[in-house]
Amino acid sequence: MSTxxxxxxxxxxxASGKSTLGRxxxxxxxxxxxxxxxxxxxxxxxVGGEAKMLSSDAQARRTTINSVRYECLFATAAENLGVGxxxxxxxxxxxxxxxxxxxxxRLSQLGLAGDSATLVWVDTPRNxxxxxxxxxxxxxxxxxxxxxxxxxxxxxxxxxxxxxMRIDGTITGREQLEAFRESFAITG
Length: 188
Prior knowledge:
Strand order of the largest sheet: 2-3-1-4-5
Largest sheet: 5 strands, parallel
Number of helices: 9
Structural class: alpha/beta
Radius of gyration: 16 Å
Order of helices and strands: EHEHHHEHHEHHEH
Distance between the termini: 13 Å
């Protein structure tokens, strides 16, 4: 892998503004954009999508499907990094944010040193997330909204336990890019 390849992980809960920020960062840096939803949702929907995840054996099915979705994302990232393309990865990355061991395992899986990966947390309050979910009315959201399952667990809204850059999910895209530019530096 090229020593100049770098990965930015844009993380946060659903509707926090991850994809919007990720596109802006990829455009700004000229890097490859890899969004979990874009890469895997068509297949996910073809096998039943979120509605299928609300059935009685949903937890086991959700864990298996999410694992496969993330492996698709990481395999594609590894291929890009392996040929020297820096990447912006967009997904909730809940396990990676909340467990330092999982974060280190992912970096190792991608062949990244700590200084060649940046975790960017889009911090958006629960009430704003819920407003956005209701406003976008995406099919992936409607099934669980209608079921009354609710938003992600409270701990999913907390800050990552690993080193990260916090970006306010309620400010404008321009302000987010300015905040990113002030803090971001590629090393190595």
